[in-house]
Amino acid sequence: MLTKEQVLHALKDVNDPELNKSLVELNMIRNINIEGDKVALDVILTIRGCPLKVKIQEDVENAVREAGAADVQVNFGSMTDDERAALSQQLRKEQQPTANPAIPPLLAEDAKTKFIAIASGKGGVGKSTVTVNLAVALARLGKKVGIVDADIYGFSVPDMMGIERRPTVIGETILPVERFGVKVMSMGFFVENNAPVVWRGPMLGKMLRNFFSEVHWGELDYLLLDLPPGTGDVALDIHQMIPQSKEIIVTTPHATAAFVAARAGAMAISATKHELLGVVENMSWFETEDEKKHYIFGRGGGQKLAEELNVDLLAQIPIGAPDNDIDLDDEAFAPGVYEENHPTARDYQALARKVIAGIQ
Ligand SMILES: Nc1ncnc2c1ncn2[C@@H]1O[C@H](COP(=O)(O)OP(=O)(O)OP(=O)(O)O)[C@@H](O)[C@H]1O
Ligand SMILES: [Mg+2]
Fold first, then answer.
1. Quick check: 136 and 181 in contact, CB under 8 A?
2. Do 53 and 125 have their domain in common?
3. Which end of the chain is more exposed for a tag (fewer CB within 10 A), N or C?
4. Is residue 278 domain-resident?
């Protein structure tokens, strides 16, 4: 007959998918009851209506069956406020390698996460699209990746990635939402019904800081920051908060766009000392079926900008939305993410490799 110890042992490698920690270690497995080859147990979730309940149930059932149970009954409960507060404390402590508690661990000087801000001069050139697809490409290459949607007013990352759920909040700790292997934090998660955000200056900075200090990012190799367009407050805030951030400038091939983008590049270099990784030219051409390229938005802007800023032109991304003939109800659908075997996804893979090589 199975013992409690055997059941706990079988569950020791079953992790909470968001916290990436063992359910046993998190004290989420309780009231194990064994009768013959029947096992019943409670799983105490961090919050009621945990979005990952189904996955947890499956993992627990499979593990206990593998240990020899013929029948597994999982009952769900949720932590008390006190338990959540204690867990939040525990998560914070683990995240706190810095001597100075005022500095979030992610922003500590010796943190190993590489920051990449995606900036542009003009709006609508494809910063968010590049951020999202570069992040997914890095994740597909096996990297641990996060995105901070720093466009507080004009957030678009959750929508582009097809994220419909909100982050789990445990006490004062927020867990980023994971999609396509990328952890995401956005103001969009905290706004009801697409309502406008009406904050100004200091609140914006505070919100951004919270995205680093209150969010349990876990280990990250890269954190991408989708900046709002132009050279405004948020861009400066980010620069001050994360002086070590690298930067990618996005432009369209049009000469005017490149001219405006040069200002964003100049700001990165002079005002903030962010190192520029290079330029991404987006919407470079439209390719017809006869494989002819049509330079709808002009030509050469990216190259010219790269020369002006004395950096590389890292990628030229053609015009073409991710294939939208995908089933809208499909789990894997996201309006702004190219499927792995789409030619544009391959362009992003090449970009991701250059980015990895460019930041050592
Ligand atoms: N290569 C592309 N081909 C076709 N459509 C694209 C391409 N890149 C971006 N788009 C579309 O263009 C629009 C603007 O892109 P996106 O939102 O990424 O730009 P942005 O620079 O982040 O804009 P904002 O300045 O408003 O934040 C979006 O609708 C996006 O889907
Ligand atoms: Mg954007």
1. yes
2. no
3. C
4. yes
Is 355 a pocket residue for ligand 1 (Cβ < 6 Å)? no
* C-beta 284 within 6 A of ligand 1: no
Same domain, 71 and 16: yes
C-alpha 126 – ligand 1 centre gap (Å) = 4
Amino acid at 206: K
Q: Which residues pair with 76 in a beta bridge?
A: 43
Residues in the chain: 360
Verify whether ligand 1 is closer than 6 Å to residue 230 (CB atom): no
158 alpha-carbon distance from chain centroid: 9
Total domains in the chain come to 2
- Phi/psi for 246 (5° steps) reads -90, 170
Give this prediction's pTM.
Answer: 0.86
| Residues 6 or more apart in contact with residue 251 via CB below 8 angstroms | 120, 121, 122, 125, 257, 258, 261, 279, 280, 281, 282, 301, 302, 305
Residues 186 and 57 in one domain: no
Measured CA to CA, the distance from residue 212 to residue 102 in angstroms comes to: 12
Q: Which atom of ligand 1 is closest in space to residue 282's alpha carbon?
A: 1
In sign, the C-alpha dihedral spanning 102, 108, 114, 115 is positive
pLDDT at 130: 97
* DSSP 8-state assignment for residue 168: E
Residues 133 and 238 in one domain: yes
**Which range of residues forms the domain containing residue 63?**
4-79
Residues 6+ apart with CB under 8 A from 249: 119, 120, 121, 261, 264, 265, 268, 276, 278, 279, 280, 305, 309
Q: Is 157 in the same domain as 63?
A: no
Of 120, 122, 128, the residue with max ligand 1 atoms within 8 A of its CB, to mutate for a pocket test, comes to 128
Q: What local confidence, expressed as pLDDT, does residue 99 receive?
A: 61
Tokens 């030229």 belong to 316
Same domain, 52 and 123: no
Inter-residue contact 74 to 60 (CB < 8 Å) = yes
Q: What is the pLDDT of residue 177?
A: 94
Measured CA to CA, the distance from residue 281 to residue 253 in angstroms comes to 6
**H helix intervals, 95-126:** none
Ligand number nearest CA of 229 is 1
